[in-house]
Amino acid sequence: MICASFWGVNHHQQCILFGCALLFDVTKDSFLWLLKTFMETMGNRPPKTIYTDESEAVASAVKVVFPETEHRLGICYIIENAKKHLSICYERCPDLESTFNRCIFECSSKQEFESEWNLLLDKYGLLGNSWLDRLFVLREKWSHLFFNNKKAFTAGVESILSSMTINTVFQTLQGTDIMTLPGLVRKCVQEAEKRRLEETNEDFRTCNETVPSKSRKGLEEHAEDIYTGTILRMFENEYVKSMNMEMEEVTSLEGVSMFKFIEKSCKKDEGVSLMFNSLVPSIACGCAKFESFGILCSHSLKVLYSRNVSHIPDKYVLRRWTKSAKNGVVMEDQREEMAGESNRQSSLYSRKLMHRALHLIAKSALRKETRRIMEDCLDTAQKKVENVLKTKGIKDLSITNFEVDCEDDCDGSINRGGYKRRKGIGSNSSFISQEERTRKKK
């Protein structure tokens, strides 16, 4: 059987498991069902980017179900497959891996990529290798050279969801040589709950701990106010990098300026260009850091700092990286779909509010004073809601069609392990992995 898993990253850049599915085969029809089912569970919103292995069946299904989604091949799978298909060369030539990695990560032009690729084939006698020939055809799906050109949003998912992470998880899920279906499901649920707890703990740290800094003001101070701890540290790394590069204003006309940047480690002809409109303001940088990841790059911060801008422009604050990322919202296209559908609207409202309430309950349970605040707020809200309903002539306030999971020993205390069921935050990028697992019980 095939165990297909969907992964993503949350607002703390933590690896999260959206779900798993067991498939009997690897046909296009199976993957069509899988991707359609996944999209339904995610509110019929396709991911911005999806990473998969090299399966042609998966690629065909992605084109049908996610026609607007950027489809890329996971580097972890390519490196694993390289060691399988080129095993003899890997054993005999220790430097093969570094040459291969240059094709993946370091090329800055198509000419350089083709030069490195030809070097790989000639130096290690790999001309005519069928796996490499097919990989070259798919180069726009795995070489970072082409990624930068497309500027697709990835949320940094590839660097987080490494092969080691996924394999370690499934080794844990496997546990023993024999695994029943219910046992596998329980293991998957435990893994998901463990990651939810890690997320809740990081939420608490973000809200209650200050990231150490000798002096933080202006853009950095604003970043501290809005971003989660992990994203703040990434932002500060970009800010520090901005201090170590040279900037030249090439042209300036009616508030629109063109800048050229030269990092101290780069050659003169490898500089990055940036256009800045001080009237809007808007920034367009050649490195595409914001478009691909969602935070401003060091080049943009250098320009903003030089123009005495003390706040990150709203258009460059991506909600998914902020402390308020989990405060539920209904998207515009969802509002249109809900028009005239009162029952469905009520259901969506309940699920959205339950998500927020349970998250707040989990956070408030950590301290006695926060529990008291939560109880007082609920009492106040209950009285106000009941008063409004009574004025509308609604006397029966009983609740129907509402279920809450509670363990048998429920005594009013809160389990820090979190609530049992929750849909993941609408991630803008996803990762699907496949692993063959044959389970035969003797």
Protein traits:
alpha+beta, five-stranded mixed beta sheet, four-stranded antiparallel beta sheet, 18 helices, 48% helix, 14% strand
Order of helices and strands: EEHEHEHHHHHHHHHHHEEEEHHHHHE
Q: How many strand segments?
A: 9
Low-confidence runs of at least 5 consecutive residues: 329-341, 396-428, 433-442
The outline comes out as globular
Radius of gyration of CA atoms, rounded to a whole number: 25 Å
Strand-pairing-aware structural class: alpha+beta
Average pLDDT figure: 80
Distance between the termini: 17 Å
Short description:
This protein is α+β, with helices and mostly antiparallel strands and 442 residues long. The protein is built from 18 helices and 9 strands.
3D architecture notes:
With 442 residues, the protein is α+β, with helices and mostly antiparallel strands. The chain has helices at 28-41, 56-65, 75-85, 87-92, 96-106, 110-123, 130-137, 144-150, 157-160, 163-174, 181-208, 219-226, 229-242, 289-292, 298-306, 332-338, 342-364, 368-391; strands at residues 2-9, 15-23, 49-52, 70-73, 245-253, 256-263, 272-277, 282-285, 429-436. Among the domains are: 2-86 and 129-181 and 431-436, no CATH class; 229-321, no CATH class. The chain has 18 helices and 9 strands. Strand 1 (2-9) and strand 2 (15-23) form a beta hairpin. Helix 1 (28-41) crosses helix 2 (56-65), helix 5 runs antiparallel to helix 6 and helix 17 runs antiparallel to helix 18. The longest helix has 28 residues, at 181-208. It is globular, with a radius of gyration of 25 Å. The two termini are 17 Å apart. The model is unreliable at 329-341, 396-428 and 433-442 (pLDDT under 50).
